Amino acid sequence: MGLFVHLYINPKGISPGEWESVYQESLTLLRAFPAPLMRIAREEIGTTSRFAYISDLVWDADTQEEHWRVAGDSLSGRHAEDFRLFRHMEKQFTTSFGPPDIKGDVLWAPTDCISYVDGNGIDLFGEKTQGYPYHLAILAVAILFETRFPEQCYLFGDIEPVQAGHMCRWVSKTLNTLLVTPICLDGQRLYRRISALYDDPRHAIERFQTLFRGSDAEGFESLLQYAERQAVLDVFMKELGRYSWLIVTARVISGVASHIQVEETEALHV
Questions:
Q1: Residues 194 and 81 in one domain
Q2: 157 shares its domain with 211
Q3: Same domain membership, residue 136 and residue 62
Q4: Distance CA 130, CA 35 (A)
Q5: Does 35 share its domain with 146?
Q6: Cys-Cys link to 246, which of 11, 66, 127, 240 (CB 3.0-4.6 A)?
């Protein structure tokens, strides 16, 4: 168990130059983070060596292996799992099987895996932060990447909308740039993009429910507003119908949705 930050990405369409530029921006963010960040390094002392936490985040600077690593912060003294990002795109994505060849939207998942959060991409992060202060620094980097490459990646994990809002404003101020709200917190953008990936609206609704990180109320409101209403009700009635004591709730939801539809129809004729 633990708290995670994920950044799923399909690198197709990103140039090496664009990647390196965002890498440098991410370093700017990490170095500007209010709680000084740290990484693990091995120190040589005489004939012995030991592991220690240091403030220099860059490993193998100015080489093909250059990357940053972050495992915690020195202000709180708390640390968890190690996050890293390579400066050179080919180093980040080349595996023993060669560079990835991923086709299609990064949000897509096959219908038999539609409830899995990992989409049609590679998870750059995926480690545990345990909610320690450096969680916000990694969140800021993920927000930056989604802003720069909105079609190729998406942020996911243990994300509080209020925290995400604070970090969006901090990143915007630090880099003097406009940012987009992470798609997992934007019901309209998320559903409209997902709905184009599936022929069956029920599959689109299920995928939306998997990826949306706003409140349940916001998610339901977004679906009622942007999805086919009958498909939404069918999905929710099916889910609620599994629990006999919630059947009444299902009927209330259906009634409320019908009432909203009547009000909208009447408004159109005013």
A1: no
A2: no
A3: yes
A4: 16
A5: yes
A6: 240
Q: What's the token pair of residue 102?
A: 């991923």
Tell me the per-residue pLDDT of 120-179, one tens digit each, with 9 for 90 and over: 999 999 899 999 999 999 999 999 999 999 999 999 999 999 999 999 999 999 999 999
Using CB atoms within 10 A of its CB, is residue 191 exposed (0-12), middle (13-18) or buried (19+)? buried
Give residues with Cβ within 8 angstroms of 92, minimum separation 6: 11, 19, 85, 86, 124
pTM of the predicted protein model: 0.84
Which of 158, 180, 202 is where one domain is finished?
A: 180
